[in-house]
Specification:
The structure is a homotetramer. By secondary structure, chain A is α/β, with parallel strands linked by helices. Chain A has nine helices and eight strands. In chain A, strands 5-4-1-6-7-8 form a six-stranded parallel beta sheet, sandwiched between helices. In chain A, helix 2 crosses helix 8. Chains in contact: A-B, A-D, B-C, C-D.
């Protein structure tokens, strides 16, 4: 809640209205940052069901969503497929370049991009984005750069908070929820 | 404890006395909401041993118990089988419809149904139920609708709290515990 | 810390001095109570390294140690084997009977038995034991019966706390640590 | 934060400047201490992505890094390989001997060694090291010996805190981050 008065400020609301692409890191943002290594060399990832629902709402509201990970994991690509994430980049050393490519492909301006990151390797991509989010577990250097620090930590609903705040600022939340619930109630 | 004075109110006790069916969501209610994806595409689910015991007490006391999940998981069906859950619905988009079918099958009234949910996709089913529970990790829209918010979060004993409060309101808790312990002590 | 003044009381110290057998439940005591179900039907258990060390100290000090679980799990038997737990009972509905058998086998009195449990199905065994421990996550009925409630929860070092308090009350802690460290330093 | 005034003291800064080798325990330091046992006998380990990045910075700054574990695990050797840990010792009963060998191999003095440990079996190695770190989850005997207790617990970023504090004391942090980020931005 540290940033609460600022978060809801007119300046932030104005920034949030411009967002067309929501890009995010994976480890520490969509997960709590644990690297769960099995003996067979496979990795297990623990995502959060609430983040998945928030991302679905963003997609229903017409936002672009991108996952950009410095690592590669079959578990990440499986979860991305389940959620129909349109843009998945894995094994990506240069996340800023990945964001720049998306900006080019969709003819966006930096102010149309929101980015969620938690650590040093997210700083270049965060610097590129017009709206910068940090989960509560982010390092201080990232938090210092962030327009908003979420109350929840990565893997525990941080991404959902970001989805909700963007959709509400754009007055698209009620509409997205209605479409979502109507889809559920379809016979 | 936020709702404690209200929780134990005469109005809630009266509502709890009418419960014949305890229906609940899975992810975020029987688990903490983590979607644990392995590289081989299988999912691991982490249930809580205390919830299992609470559900056993409800069954011993003659309540119907239903698990209704929007997702499908072999881990969920295995745990349901171990606990002899009589009604398991998976891959269910329309949870309200699933609840309505159970109401029809057992010739119940809505006031005979308690439902535990944590997120937007539980709202229609929650609205149908006479008694509405939210684990502490539920979103604010669900909590606003809830008759009682548990102290524990999903996957950490939230369901046990609901089982205990229903059985105690119905004065069936002591009897169920006696039957349960007698079963354990049988040679 | 709720019970701290009582815990260290002369009455408790006297009780602890008599302990010859430390028996304990598994789920919720040696683990946090999560039942982690994989799709292939296998279960994963998460023990704590600090509990393992505490149990090793108890064995070095000449105490008997028993694990008594209502469930059966290959993961439990593997961890028990690694720690050389002398008495492992799994799939045990009647834990009180299992404790009574150990009392008979070693010609003990109830006051020589310490038991750690967290839920209803531990009540009969707890009632049999001379010294009763509850981890912080135990249900209120178990805590009400306990001589001491640990500060740590099950799976997070609760068992280590019990090991330490027994060995220190018996003035065997320093000796056990010396033997343990000497073993480590052996070339 | 308990030790904060002391941590940043001139005495500690002076000690930190001398560090050339950062050695650490694995269970309870690089993980939260959970021993996650699968039914097939394999173990899963959960490391933290932030610790990995901190260790990479230390290696970029020219420090030696060693992992010394009393246990053996394929998951540990896989994570060590991914991070290019130069010195990995597993199944090590005598950690002090392992530290002494590294001191000999690199012609160091004890004051050039920092060690992070959390339990009794780390005491001999900690006693040998010039700078001693304990994660917040360490036992009191280890904390009593520590020059600094981290705010984060093992597996949740404790090692990252140690990496940062050493590199900042040596005024190598900015440089290491620059090299690290330049590597990421390379086309």
């Amino acid at each position: 809640m540290a940033n609460a008065p600022l978060d809801r400020s007119a300046a932030l609301l104005s920034k949030l209205s411009a967002v067309r692409l929501l890009a995010m890191d994976v480890d520490g943002v969509l997960t709590c940052g644990e690297i769960e290594v099995n003996s067979d060399g496979f990795e297990t990832k623990r995502f959060h069901v609430a983040d998945g629902l928030g991302i679905q709402l963003c997609l229903l509201a017409g936002l672009q969503v991108a996952w950009i990970s410095g690592r590669s994991s079959e578990a990440v690509s499986r979860r991305a497929a389940e959620l129909n994430i349109p843009h998945l980049t894995m094994g990506c050393a240069n996340k800023a370049k990945a964001v720049a490519e998306l900006i080019g492909r969709f003819t966006l301006q930096p102010e149309n991009v929101a980015y969620i990151g938690d650590d040093l390797n997210d700083l270049p991509a965060l610097s590129l984005a017009g709206v910068r989010f940090a989960p509560s577990n982010a390092i201080s250097e990232v938090k210092a750069l962030a327009d908003m620090v979420t109350e929840r930590s990565g893997g525990c609903g941080a991404v959902r908070e970001v989805c909700d705040v963007i959709l509400k600022a754009q007055e698209k939340w009620n509409g997205a929820v209605e479409i979502y619930l109507a889809g559920l109630l379809r016979p």
